[in-house]
Amino acid sequence: MVFVAYLCLLAAVIWLFQGGDALPVDKRAEAPARLIAALIGTALAAVGLIQLSRHTAQTAGTAILIVLAIGGCLYVSGVLWWEGRVGYWLRMIGWMGMIIPLLIPSTLSLTLPLVALLALTLRIRTRRGDLRSRRAP
Q1: Which of 103, 106, 96 is nearest to 41 (CA)?
Q2: Could you tell me the sign of the dihedral formed by the alpha carbons of 16, 129, 79, 30, in that order?
Q3: What single-letter DSSP state applies at residue 134?
Q4: For 112-135, how does the pLDDT look when each residue is reduced to its tens digit (9 = 90+)?
Q5: b/e per residue, 47-85, with b = 16+ CB within 10 A?
Q6: How far out from the chain centre does Cα 9 lie?
Q7: Separation CA 17–CA 83 (nearest Å)
Q8: pLDDT at residue 134, as a whole number
Q9: Which of 22, 48, 51, 83 has the least CB density, counted as fewest CB within 10 Å?
């Protein structure tokens, strides 16, 4: 099952960094997409904080949970900010902050397909028409 989660992440990363135009999103679909993305980011940040409060293991486990919680908070901040370079970079850094701890094999790695779906928000065209992709100016 973890192998399938890693394959979902690999497919999302390849799709995200292959370049190309941003995804056009209808204004009616933007709000639900942002809401779902914010809920997933908030849930992962909460999981990181809850596990951190119950965690009594080594320093590496604590660091992993802290990075997961901070990544989730940054991602949600980027979803709330949404437009412009600041919103894009908050989403990108937060997404990477959620991905990196989940790459270490654990039960939490099973959430990788959900986090891989969040890559869609990194290639969405904002309302001002700015392209937010790897080749954005």
Answers
A1: 96
A2: negative
A3: T
A4: 998 988 888 887 765 554 444 444
A5: bbbebeeeeeeeeebeebbbbbbbbbbbbbbbbeebeee
A6: 11
A7: 20
A8: 43
A9: 83
| Residue (of 124, 50, 121, 65) closest to 97 by Cα position | 65
Nearest to 134 by CA among 125, 122, 121: 122
d(CA 104, CA 63): 12
Cα separation, 91 vs 119, whole angstroms: 9
Question: Would you list the DSSP string of 18-80?
Answer: T--PPBP--HHHHHHHHHHHHHHHHHHHHHHHHHHHH--S-HHHHHHHHHHHHHHHHHHHHHH
Question: Taking 90 as the threshold, does the pLDDT of residue 108 lie above it?
Answer: no
Q: What is the pTM of this model?
A: 0.81
**Residue 84 phi/psi, 5° resolution?**
80, 180
In whole angstroms, give the CA distance from residue 48 to residue 31.
26
Neighbours of 137 (CB within 10 A): 5
Let me know: does 101 contact 64? Beta carbons within 8 Å: yes
